[in-house]
Amino acid sequence: MSRVLVIGAGLAGSEAAWLLATRGVSVVLAEVKTLKLNPAQKISTFAELVCTNSLKSMDPDSAHGLLKTEMRALGSLVLDVANATAVPAGDALAVDREHFSQQITHRLSHHPLIQVIAFEASDPIALMQEHNCQHVIVASGPLTTNPLETWLTENLSSEDIYFYDAIAPVVDADTLDYSKLYYKDRHKQPDERADYLNAPMNKEQYDAFIAEMVAAEKVPPKDFEDWKFFESCLPIDLMAERGPETARFSCMKPIGLELPDGSEPWAVVQLRKENLQGAAFNLVGFQTRLTYKEQVRVFRMIPGFEEASFIHLGSCHRNSFLNSRKLLNSSMTSLKFPQMSFAGQITGVEGYTESAAMGLYVAHQLWRRLQGLEELAWPKETGIGALVNYVMTIEKPAPSNINFGLLPNIEMTREQRKSGPKKKVRKQLAAQRAREVFSGFSQQL
Question: Which is more confidently placed, 430 or 203?
Answer without folding.
Answer: 203
